[in-house]
Amino acid sequence: MATxxxxxxxxxxxxxxxxSLPRKxxxxxxxLFRGTTTAAGTMVLVxxxxxxxxxxxQAVPALTDNDANFLTExxxxxxxxxxxxxxAATAFGTVLTAVIALLLAVPxxxxxxxxxxxxxxxxxxxPLGFIIDLLAAVPSVVFGLWGxxxxxxxVQGLSRFLHENLGWLPIFGSEGPYGKSVLxxxxxxxIMILPIVTSLSREVFMQTPAQNEEAALALGATKWEMxxxxxxxxxxxxxxxxxxxxxxxxxxxxxALALTLGGVYKVSFDLIGPGGTSxxxxxxxxxxxxxxxxxxALIASGLVLFAITLVVNxxxxxxxxxxxxxxxxxx
Amino acid sequence: xxAQVDTERPVVIASGDQLKAKRLPTxxxxxxxxxxxxxxAGLVMGTGWGGPVLTGVVAAVLFIVGLGVAGGVVEGRRxxxxxxxxxxxxxxxxxxxxxxxxxxxxxxxxxxxRLDGNFLGTSMKNISAFDANGGAxxxxxxxxxxxxxxxxITVPLGIAGAIYIVEYGRGFLANAIRFFVxxxxxxxxxxxxxxxLSFWVFVVTPIFNDxxxxxxxxxxxxxxxxxxxxxxxxxxxxxxxLVPGALREGAYALGIPKWKxxxxxxxxxxxxxxxxxxxxxxxxxxxxxxxxxxxAGGNPAINFSPFSDNQSSLSLYVFEQAGVASQYAPAxxxxxxxxxxxxxxxxxxxxxxxxxxxxxxx
Lengths: 331, 362
Description:
Chain A is mostly helical. Chain A contains 10 helices and 2 strands; from the N terminus they run αββααααααααα. Helices cover 68% and strands 1% of the residues of chain A. Helices cover 74% and strands 0% of the residues of chain B. Chain B is flat and about 75 Å long. The interface between A and B is large, with 93 and 94 residues.
């Protein structure tokens, strides 16, 4: 305030007058720009609503023609006249494979993430983290092809072993032949979501404030106790977000499951026998042969998938948003 | 003063050994590992229960348990559980490495079997199940065109949306958009495909097409745009937030209007980061199969036009060849998969290298 010397005065205004603010023109560049960006932002809402509207619109013809109960029927005879189809088996398969994949992948992924962020020497961890990021970009069709042509052999052996030793459990009760199964599909799915969950949670773990870690170590914590008390609580919203993102991927995964699931339309917890189907895989495999009603029926099943993923994602986001306020972590 | 205290109390001079907690000798993990392997071999091979794989698994379990018990007895419970956790974390890493390395190995060895000039330069027109030749030229064109058009649509839209969220958005609408951008990230690719199918292919194109649904590469590009949009918005938003507020205020103080500040100062500053985010989004979209399968339909012949007739793409080509009953199909599928991975990883690596040079994100 005191040192005003050297500051050039506004040229247009005379002493003491000040300059007048530019007038707000309704059609000026500023309003145009603002309107454009607002429209672009609103597009997101428009698209979400449009997805629901158009899927419902195109699904109604098949749903009204359907001779069976859409929610409880297991089979998929959508091309028949009258059509009989339902999402019981496919929706069940979608959730089952996604949940098994998540159970398999998340502990391993968190282990790798911790290994890369806190255990491995930095010289090794940085390139390995880079490779994990690259693996997250590998298209799913590659994993599907690998799973069907190469990975089924070890899974066959595993299935035989599980049946021989744990055959009294209904989930391992099938006597074969062991080939395309829920187990194969789920493990391939787990391998696919592993890099995504790892790469996101690694980033969160690496952001743990150094003070928190050093404070834990200074109090005499072992490394594992430091991770349990400083790193994991700090990263919890990020972990939840990454797991939910992995779940979203697993629920919507199409091609890898179309190649590795048996395509048997039955609600069954049998993991190792020939079987398994999912909404997305069903759409991908049935679309080519579908007639008009068949396509409409597939769109109806897609609507269910959309609803499932929407609910899962909204719950996940709500958790992350609420926790972010308390923890202050970034997620 | 201290001297007095010293004389009054019996002085215990602690040697280095007593100050340190008791620790397992460095050879202990090796010894436990050897014992675990011998025990596992005896248990599994000796009784004829299983083969070398099962031996490995049993040995690993025995090693973890053994090390935990030994550490717990000698060093105390907390140190023991620390050892178990460390071992588990490293073994999670090794466990995951095996399948991922296998995928990479198979992809490279099988992919190079057919990857040559002929494969990259010919299409699948007039190729029957008994022909060993045929290639992916048409599919490469499809992938590049679809991903390119999707980029042209999504990048301006996504950046504008992010500008709204960061620079203009206040209140309910901005919060709703932010929330649904996050939710939209989780939309499965097949749902995006079905959306474009029931919106563009079944409703819009029949108007120009004498009532027939128009499957095309452009429809696939639209579906890919739906998938890319939230990723582009999210990454751009994060980059814009990193631009220091002082830069904006400096521009305002000079009397520059807000829109010009954003276009000339905020966007160029955030530029490298935005490019990185867009490239990662393109890389992900280029590998998608399901939307292309639904709305572009696939085509064995070369079709340069994205607006008329069916088009193929590399990922769709892999999926199709995977289902063809021909002894030559697997080699073609793997060669196309390798081509696709090379394209996608080139984009990803470039994006990551660009991100390293980004000064804002440091």
